[in-house]
Specification:
Elements (H helix, E strand, L loop, with lengths): L2 H22 L4 H22 L7 H25 L1
Helix pairs in contact: 1-2
Keywords: Membrane, Transmembrane, Transmembrane helix
């Protein structure tokens, strides 16, 4: 994606974080922990995408390794049935 989009998205994210910060003063410690953990995780992914760092996601394993195996098995065993 375009870096301009990521900068705009990051700016909007920071503004909403600052808006939510006021509301988080009344939250319990567990809610604050979850909120800040997800906030840091999102911030990490946004900045990684902004700098062009590819973060390996768990689903990518299935797309890269499992899907070709199942595709070849399906083609081998289902093609004679379909034709």
């Amino acid at each position: 994606m375009n870096k301009t989009f990521w900068v705009i998205f990051l700016s909007i994210y920071v503004v909403t974080l600052l808006y939510e910060y006021k509301k988080m003063k009344r939250a319990s410690n567990k809610e604050k922990g979850i909120f800040y953990a997800f906030s840091l995780l999102c911030l990490f992914f946004i900045t990684a995408a902004l700098f062009g760092i590819k973060v390996y996601m768990p689903m990518q394993f299935f797309v890269d390794y499992i899907s070709p195996i199942t595709r070849s098995l399906a083609n081998r065993y289902l093609d004679p049935i379909i034709k």
